[in-house]
Amino acid sequence: MNGIIIAMLLALLIPIYEAYRDSHIWQKMLAFASIATKTSMMILVVSVLRDDWMIGVVGVLILSVGNAALMLLAHVIKRSDEAGLYEP
Amino acid sequence: MIDGLSYGLMIVGLIFWFWGTLPLVGDRSVLFKLHSLSVSDTLGSMSMIAGLLLKIPREWPLLVLALISLAIWNTVLGYVLAYCSYRGEGEDDE
Fold first, then answer.
1. Which of A20, A50, B7, B77 sits in a 20 to 30 Å window from A41, CA-based?
2. What angle do CA A27, B71, A55 make, to 5 degrees?
3. Whole-angstrom Cα distance, residue A75 to residue B83?
4. Could you tell me the residue ranges of all domains in chain A?
């Protein structure tokens, strides 16, 4: 099971590197969406490993609220693009 | 047997993860990356949760909640990102 968590960590490093490397806002948003899902999945695996429900509830909450926040952020970025606040 | 199946499902999930995340580092368009990413993140994570369910069936309410919220939220997030990042006709209709 530890090997699976280490492999998940490696999979998590890819979007983190992408978010660091790419300056285009939507590529960064893609990377953040992937990071959010992967981290919450890792929290769920750790909660099953430790047999602790509370950590599992945190993982599920991050899954729902994290993605919801990213959706709001996407709409804010879209509106600011339309208003021409930032140069493309 | 059950342990083997649960590890198998988790490894399938990991393969899905790597398959969908590796193109992220390339130079393809946002929509191309979004498609492979949302498919792999959603399906890969769901197969991992199925593996976890086999491991600890007692915690099934929490893991089924994670499955449902994963299926809904990840899919809708993929749609919202596609809609918001798409230039062109997407801007005209309010």
1. A20
2. 90
3. 9
4. 2-82
